[in-house]
Amino acid sequence: MSSLDEAVCRRFLMRVLFSAVGRRDPVDLLSRDRTSGEGDVFTEGSLLQAIRKVKPDIIYLYLTQEMAYLDEKDDRYVKSIMELYRHLDYKSEDEALKEVMIHKIMGQDEGRPHDFNLCIQELGSALNKIHEKHSEAELYVNISSGTPAIENALYLLASFSSYKMRVVQVDAPGFVGESNSNNEKKQKVDYDQELANLSILEANKEKLRAYYPPLENMNYTLKKRLMIGNINQFNYKAALTIARTVADFLDASVISLIKAADYKSTLDNTRKESALKGVKKSLRFSEYKKRGVRIVDYLLYLDLNLKRGLLLDFFRGLTPFIINVFELYLKRVLKIPLDSYTEERGRKGIRRCFSPEKLDRDDTGRKIHSLLTRGRTVKFNFGNSIASWHCLILIKGLSTDVDFIRKCQQLRDIEVAIRNPVAHRIVSLDENGVVHMMSEATRKSGKRTGGKTPADIMDLCQKVLEACGLDLPPDVWQTYENINKHIISLL
């Protein structure tokens, strides 16, 4: 992150630093200066170096029982931190930090600070409480202070956390010509706050040893894979459930887009649009949204059922599509608005029927009346709801597109052969069952419907809708695949 980016973040987000305290904190005092070779050593520890890097607003110090004992002697950690804040440079930022809040967490290590399992439990609990209290803040974790068990536990917790943590690492100090192992042999000097303050002052001139190492959060990585898998299977509800468990790692737009895709896949246009309100237009997925035409979304919904293997739902949903696509063709291509010749009947207008009176008002109506009633051995019942076979009669009588008429007849035959039986019986259906039912219908009726697979039937539905003059984009039938790619690109 650049200094400009850090300044921008600082204007809006509070920074919280969690750090254990080690034996070299706040400063490491030895009998020889590691840099100049003169006088006593007063090298800044990882705690202060991490603070220099993060410049936190709030600091949580984790003290093992040993470190708490040292702290009780002279309050060395708070005193050194306050001294450091006197020297921190804020010239590159909009405003200086006026004060820092410091909280101490007393460890319950019972003299076992090297117990890894104990560290995982205790540090994990502490970090969870801090995150709950400061959920809107940026959380930083110093992984270079404390016992090896504490450092490793913090690294592991940051790697598998369900919320975002940024780790801070501090390189060990050293000097040319002498190894760190030799440094360890130098004689320790009793803690002296004046030497500590001097160390802080001298460290202002030195290169910062703290930095942000790259850290892949394995929890998010694993759940991201699960999200991608579910999205590619069009299982948006499962993807949304997973996304909410790692919401800290995701832009709010991503969750809104998954919500919108889920609502779109269930034809809930109102809630889909509501979910998209919080998403920038540049980040929204593309879709066919011609006003007043929902049949495209409905056919995409049927296609989703097919892709999910829900063949019963696919075939049971065919009738609404067939009657609506037939009516759409009559209206847009043949310029026959059926609404002008129908009326609502029954309780609360649950039936839409042809009206003899309205049909007799003009030549087109009389033509429709003739097509519906001619050649019938049984008198046409105008009280019956409009069905797909009514519309097919009109298309056959009024259209000159022979190929389109053939496709419409095939759809109607499929409705009779498969949709009607599965809509009224408790059955199981797979692709082989579909092919068998179509072949049986062909054998009994002599109509050419045999051998069609569910994919063939979906292709037929798409071609019939494409003939209705909606000016569909070329990739409209890949809408959900495109939505998936778009969402996945933002994860």
Characteristics:
52% helix
What can you tell me about this protein's structure?
- Residues 1-11, 32-37, 91-96 and 175-185 have low confidence and may be disordered.
- The chain has helices spanning 3-12, 46-54, 65-74, 76-85, 116-133, 148-160, 180-183, 193-203, 218-232, 236-245, 252-265, 269-276, 295-307, 311-316, 318-332, 356-359, 363-373, 388-398, 402-423, 431-445, 454-466, 479-490; strands at residues 15-20, 27-28, 43-44, 58-63, 101-106, 138-142, 166-170, 210-211, 342-345, 351-354.
- A 6-stranded mixed beta sheet has the order 5-4-1-6-7-8. The protein has a two-stranded antiparallel ribbon with strand order 2-3.
- The protein has 491 residues and is α/β, with parallel strands linked by helices.
- The longest helix has 22 residues, at 402-423.
- α6 links the parallel β6 and β7 (166-170).
- Among the domains are: 3-211, 3-Layer(aba) Sandwich (Rossmann fold), CATH 3.40.50.10770; 218-288 and 486-490.
- The chain starts with a helix and ends with a helix.
- α4 packs parallel to α8, α15 (318-332) packs antiparallel against α19 (402-423) and α19 crosses α20 (431-445).
The secondary-structure class comes to: alpha/beta
- How far is the first residue's CA from the last residue's CA? 20 Å
The percent of residues in helical segments reads 40-55%
Instruction: Give unreliable regions as ranges.
Output: 1-11, 32-37, 91-96, 175-185
Task: Indicate the CATH architecture of the domain at 3-211.
Answer: 3-Layer(aba) Sandwich
**Strand percentage, roughly?**
5-15%
CATH topology title of the domain at 3-211:
Rossmann fold
CATH class of the domain at 3-211: Alpha Beta
* Rg: 36 Å
Biggest beta-sheet profile = 6 strands, mixed
Strand order of the largest sheet: 5-4-1-6-7-8
Number of strands: 10
